[in-house]
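pls ignore typos typing on phone
WTA + seq
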Amino acid sequence: MSESSSIDSVLKETRTFAPPAAFTAQANIRSEEQYNTMWQRAKDDPAGFWGDLAREHLHWFRPFDTVLEGEMPETRWFSGGTINASYNCLDRHLETERRNKAAIIWEGEPGDTRVLRYQDLHREVCRFANVLKGLGVEKGDRITLYMPMIPELTIAMLACARIGAVHSIIFGGFSADAVADRNNDAQARIVITADGGWRRGREVPLKAAVDAALEKSPTVEKVVVVRRTGGEVDMVPDRDFWWHELTEGASADCDAVEVDAEHPLFILYTSGSTGKPKGVLHSTAGYLLGTTMTTQWVFDLKEDDTYWCTADIGWITGHSYITYGPLSNGATVVMYEGAPNWPDEGRFWEIVEKYRVSIFYTAPTAIRAFIKWGNQWPEKYDLSSLRLLGTVGEPINPEAWMWYREVIGQERCPIVDTWWQTETGGIMISPLPGITATKPGSCGRPLPGVVPDIVSSDGTSLPANEGGLLVMRQPWPHMLRTLYGDHERFKQVYFSEIPGCYFAGDGARRDEDGYIWVMGRVDDVINVSGHRLSTMEIESALVAHERVAEAAVVGFPHEIKGEGIFCFVTLKDGEGDEALQQELTQHVRDQIGALATPDRVRFAPALPKTRSGKIMRRLLRDIAAGRESVQDTTTLEDLSVLARLRDEEE
Ligand code: WTA
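k done
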C-alpha cells in the first residue's frame, strides 16, 4: 500500500460531449432508464440478472442449477452447468448465416493477408485440437502460447478451450527467462510458438527464446512451431514439431468437450507488487458471459460491424476483446501482426480505410504516439467508416482524448474510455456510447453488474470528488477465481486491504455525476505503454547483475509511454559509468524483455530508507520526476542520501 491513504486529485475537467442523436437511436443501450433499470436489477438481484443473460446469450450443454453461490472471494457461478467456450465462439454460429461471415480478417506486417470465415476457423480449431490430443494433452493441462499476432494464435487458444486445456499466453516481447518462469509456475506441458514474428521489418525470433527457456522449464515435453517468417530454427528431434506437418493429416472432426462452468479457461500472468508474476486464473462460463455482454454493451456491436482492437493477444485486452468477446458474438475481427509505424506512420489508418473498420479500440500510449507523428498521417486516409472509438490501459489525458475525438473520430464518434484489469476479465467502468455524455479523462459510470465504491484506507465510503481507493462491493461473473497455485496470495492481494471488497489497486475519485476518474495505481506497479510492470521484478533483474548491490525502480512521467522506468542503483564497489548504465539496461531487457527497458539508470551511493528498512519510493518518484519533494522526511534513515540524490539530478 501507499504511504498515505488519501490521494489528491489535481485534474479539473469540465467539458462534456453528449452522444450524437443518430448513434443513440440505433444503440444497443439507448436510454438512461434502460441503463438504470439494468444496473439496479443487477445490484439487487445479481442471480436473476446474470442468470437470464447466461441463458439467453450462451449455449449450455447442461443448464446450470444455481447462478451464484458464496461470497467474495469464494464465489461460484453457474454450478451444475456444462459449457464450452470454443463451441460458443464457433459451432453455434455455423447453424446460422454467420457460417460464411469473416471471423478474422488478418493482415501481416509485410502486407500479406488472410481471411478466415467462421467455417474456416472452426475447421482449423478442430484440426489443431486433434493435434493437441495426439500430443497427449488432456483436460486441465496447461499449455504455453508464445506467438506472434497470427491467426494460429487464435486457433491455438480455441483449440485448447475445445478440449478443456488451459492456455497461458505469454506476450511475444517477454524474454526467455520470463517464459521459463511462467512455464514453471503453470507447469506447462506443451509450448506453442513460431519461428518468429515481424516487428518493424525485423524478425522477432521466438523459437530461439523458447529453446533457451526450455533449458530451465523441465515440465515442458513438446513444442509446436508455426512457420511464419521462414527464419532459421533448430528443431530438436522428438521434442519440436512443425504446426503445418502435424495439422496436415489431422481430422477436422472434433467435438467440443463439456466442461463445468467453473472449469479454468486460461491463466494470464500479470505484474504484482511483489516480484513474482501472478497467474490470474479465469473460469469458463463467467468469463465468457462477461466478455460477451460487455462487447455488446460497450462496443454497441452490430452484425455488420468490422471491429478492430489493436492490442496484442498476449495481454488481457486481446484475450477478451479480440478473441472471446467478439467471436462469441459472431463479429468480424480485424487482426494485425505488426507495428503501427511500419512501413510508415499511416499503417493503422491505411488498415481502417482498407477494411472499412467501424469500431476501433486502442490504448492511450498509442494515441500519444499518433499525436507525435502528426495529423498528416490520419488525414491521408478515409476514416469515415469509423463509428465508435475506445481506449484502455491507463488514464487518458484529456488533451489526447480531444485529439482522438477530433482527428480520428472527426467529432462524429463517441469515445468509450474503458476501465478494467486482467483480474476483472472484462470492462467494468465505461461510458455506454448511446447514452453517456462523455467527459475527457473519465471512464464514466459502472456497467450493469458492477458495484464500485471509492473508500478511504479504513473502508469508509468517500463523498464525491474525494480521491481514495477503488473497490468493488459485489462479485461479478467474470472476475478472477484465484492466482494459480497460490490461493492465499489471491485472498491477500485483492481481498485483505478492504474487508468484504475486491481492491483493484487503483486510486480514483467519483464526481458529482457519479463518473469515475481513475488516478493510477497506488502500489509499486508502473504502467508503461499501458502495460503493468512490477518495479520489484525490474529490481530483481538489476540485483541479479554481479556489480549491483541494491536497486530501486520507480515510474516517472513519460510523454509517449505514460510512465518511464527510472532505476536507482547502488553498486557493490567501484563507480558507475555510461558503459555500465548501458550494460544494466541491456541486462534488464535480457531478463524481462524489451518492454521493461529502463529509460534512466542512476547510480546512487545509498537508497533512502525508513527505519524499518523500506525504500522510500515516494521520494524517489519525486526525484525521478524532477519534482521538489514535499514529503515528510523525518523517518529517513539518512537524510544526506536524499539530498545527494536530489542535487545530482538537478
Ligand atoms: C489501468 C488492462 C485508467 C489501471 C485491461 C488498471 C486504466 C490497470 C484504464 C490494469 C482506464 C486500465 N483508465 N486506468 N480506462 N484501463 N487502466 O491488468 O491502473 O493490464 O488497474 O488490464 O491499467 O491493467 P491490465
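The pocket of WTA is lined by residues 270, 315-317, 392-395, 417-422, 443, 504-506, 518, 520-521, 527, 531-532 (CB under 6 Å). The longest strand covers residues 548-558. more later
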